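Hi V.,

You were right to ask for the full record rather than a summary. Here it is.
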Amino acid sequence: MKRSLYIIIGIALLLLISCGKQQQAKSVVKDFMEQSLHKEVAYVEFSGVDSTHAISDTLLQTLRQRGPKDVQYMERVGNTLLYIRAKYVEGQDTCSTTFYLDKEATGVIAFKEN
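Predicted structure:
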């Protein structure tokens, strides 16, 4: 009985943490788009936040070089990155961009337009 209660509490805590990370990632991406990319967009939807180890430093550098030159990116710390995809309307176009964030979802490391 006690064991199942601990399991339920553990699952509830994990859900709360992941929901908080999702909201934080959305907020960071919205701020980045407005301040760094100067995009006025209507936000359609965000994917869930997930993590990846498959992004090399070389790929990050390539993604950064493709973007605007005056963008300030957060430096990568560790191997794990979070990513979230934003689908939005810009003018008459529906666009999709994947944003790579640090493990704590406090800043954008790089992005790629899909």
